[in-house]
Amino acid sequence: MTGNRCAVYGCNNTFSTSKRCEGERQISMHVFPKFKDLVSQTIRKEWVTRCSRRDKFNPDTSRICSEHFTETNYERDLQHELLGLPLRKQFKKTAVPTIGIMKKIPPKSKSAGKRDERMAKRRRN
After folding, report:
1. What is the pLDDT, as a whole number, of residue 1?
2. Whole-Å CA distances, 106 to 9, 58, 96
């Protein structure tokens, strides 16, 4: 289910489990940066690379959970602080996931290779 599960390889956080977390460790899901300018294009490519996935996935519908970002990836919400409203985390536009990211892409499993072969065979028919 695209968009419901964290796109980082090996992460099992989902959108539904993030809503059930209570206390300080509430997980939020962040959408991939859009192709607006050169900076966001570069950041988006870095996000895709850091997901460490061999399979194809659509970054337009995928998300990465907050477990992969540090506190420095968030800005202070000055407007809410000054108005005495409940604080919320504002995500920096230049944030890149760094926690729990694999350095190398894991090797493709034998079953994934067989699955790719079956899919190619079906497309030919």
Report:
1. 44
2. 9, 19, 20
- Exposure string of 34-73, with b = 16+ CB inside 10 Å and e = fewer, is eeeeeeeeebbeebeebbbbeeeeebeebbbbbbbbeeeb
Amino acid at 50: R
Q: Which residues pair with 91 in a beta bridge?
A: 74
pLDDT in tens, 1-53: 445 888 888 888 887 765 555 555 678 888 888 877 887 788 889 888 888 88
Overall pTM > 0.85: no
In the chain, where are the structural domains located? 15-124
Beta bridge partners of 30: 64
Cα–Cα dist 20/83, whole Å: 28
Sign of CA dihedral 62, 65, 69, 72: positive
